[in-house]
Amino acid sequence: MDTTELLKKVRRIEIKTRGLSRNIFAGQYHSAFKGHGMAFSEVREYQFGDDVRDIDWNVTARQQRPYIKVFEEEREMTVMLLVDVSASRNFGAVGEMKKEIITEIAATLAFSTIQNNDKIGVIFFSDRIEKFIPPQKGRKHVLYIIRELIDFTPSQTGTDISQVLRYLTNAIKKRCTTFFISDFITPENFSQAMTIANHTHDVVAIQVYDKREAELPSVGLIKLLDAERGKRIWVDTSSRRVRANYAAWWNKRQAEMEDYLKKSRVDMVSIATDEDYVVALMNLFKRRS
To answer: Stretch 188-215: mean pLDDT, rounded?
Structure first.
């Protein structure tokens, strides 16, 4: 994509997603994703009913009467986007391509973050860590993220969810809110890595999928491509048994994914490429408020 076309696309996405985040998500985002942790504020004299565990023994010794530490919630957050850039995102049969929806969702969350005066960072991943953008504030930083979402070319085609979760845990030490945006098309059991990551951070899973991935249409003999493995196979979609087996495979895979996330206590939302992601995200925010 040449520079002029890229800048025009960045501008179009900025206009759409910044408006959504400002007019629709501002209040919902604020209430759904509160600051994490408690920061020391001041000391004051002990009052009846105070927790004795908050006593500041050094000040108490100096003043010869009990004082306690007062804490307040840390409002400023760090938000991380974990964005799947594997080859399976380049699919779109119903509605837009998965890549386009992923970009818009990520951009909307990024603008919501900076409008709340929080930091935003991104990790692009396939079956390796493709790119790490450290958390920062500001519109210029978000526009850089959007440009990378549009134009980034990964070096690999596969998916390794556990690896990027381990990387997040090691790279970001302070607790953050993490939006994991992927189609979750992977044979791996990522439950353990997700549980560990969600213990350290607040992880939210956003699945983006195409309805043609869930159900084959009856259109005769077609050639299907596994984009991540580079394999092509012929499939007779006119066969009711073939379509039923495919649907059973999809449903089993979805159930496994949802089970992994449930065991990890991770909130999730599943969004089809022909659905309104605004409604889906609003419902997610309301569930967490």
So the answer is: 93
